[in-house]
Sequence to fold (237 residues):
Amino acid sequence: MNEKEFLIERFKQNNINLYPEQVEKFLTYYSYLIETNKKFNLTAITDFNEVVEKHFLDSCLNYNYFKEGASLCDIGSGAGFPAIPIKILRPDLNVTMVDSLNKRVNFLQEIIEKLNLPNTKAIHSRAQELANFVDRECFDYTIARAVAPLNILLELCAPYTKINGEIISLKSVNFDNELKTAQNAIKVLGLELKNIETIILQTESEKITRKIAYFVKKIHTPPCYPRPKNKVNTNPL
Fold:
């Protein structure tokens, strides 16, 4: 099985049928990811099969959840996960990616151009300073994958999420402990846990359990949030 066949088969095995144009975008994404990774670290996972399963497919497990034409902000996007794979499958979305490292943002801007992704941009900023670039409470959804513990993550995402918008956290099976710790943050930020979705990711060799948590924002976020990085990290809600 060649790379293209593997890509198509793994997505199909997880109930996602790729169009030829999407297949080519994922292949281009992989090639440029590995090329750039030789210059500076974007990912520790470089094997094609593993990138397909643990980055591309893992980012897309809930790609069909978002409403048509919605605005989506990926906090701490890194090498573009989960935002770019979602955008490849959902070109209707308006996607903003945020990362604190300029080299990663440059990579994101280049891959946006290489893949010809409309209504997609990358911003060089910490989440605490994102209000310098976008309006507060302007996104239908904010999403993050493997960025921070849940209580910290919610504080970083809530200020930029619309009233009745949603914060989506992609987590592993250890999510239950994080949820217990985050109860005060949920209360202070006026959030409501809408659903926890458990998804089984079928890889070549195993089945991996993923947890996706959906929080609805019910009230305006107080202007004091997010707090500066040192306070968020040392004294989380």
Summary: The chain has one domain: 3-234. Residues 98 and 157 are 11 Å apart (CA to CA). The chain has a mean pLDDT of 93. Strands lie at 71-75, 94-99, 120-124, 139-145, 161-171, 191-202, 207-217.
